[in-house]
Amino acid sequence: MSSGRRTGLPDVESKTPIVLVVTGRITRAGVPGLCAELEALLYDPEGAVRDPDAEVDCDVGGVVQADLALVEAIARLGLITRRAGGRQLRLRNVPPGLQHLMDLVGLADVMDLGDRP
C-alpha cells in the first residue's frame, strides 16, 4: 500500500500573520480606535491571547500623511503587541517619510520596519 507523494516541505507548518491595515490620515483622536482594532485581533472575547506564535504585521502603505500622530499610533500599537506575548510589531510598506520620522524619534531601532532601502 502506498500513499500519494507529499508536496511542500515536510513537517513545516506555515503561520498566517495577524495583519492590521492602517489607511488614510491618522489623527490623535483615531489612535484609540486603532488600538482597539489591534486588541480585537490579538485577544479572544475572554481576554486570552489568540495564536500566540503568530507574527503581527501592520501595513502602513495606505497612510496619507506621515506625522507625529501616526508615530504615536505605531508606538502604542507596538506596546499592545509586546504585551500580547512579547511579540514585535512588524511594519510593512513603510513610506520614506514615515521611516525618517521613526529614525528621528528613535523608534526605528526598536521596531521592525521591514525592508529598508
General description of the model:
- This protein has 117 residues and is α/β, with parallel strands linked by helices.
- The protein has 3 helices and 3 strands.
- A 3-stranded parallel beta sheet has the order 1-2-3.
- Helix 1 (31-42) packs parallel to helix 2 (68-83).
- The radius of gyration is 17 Å and the shape is globular.
- The mean pLDDT is 86.
Shape annotation: globular
Mean pLDDT equals: 86
Identify the strand order in the major beta sheet: 1-2-3
Can you tell me the residue ranges where pLDDT is under 50 for at least 5 consecutive residues?
none
The end-to-end span amounts to 53 Å
Structural class, judged by helices and strands? alpha/beta
Helix percent band: 25-40%
Rg is 17 Å
Q: What proportion strand?
A: 15-25%
DSSP summary: helix tally: 3
**Helix and strand run:** EHEHEH
* Major sheet details: 3 strands, parallel
Number of strands: 3
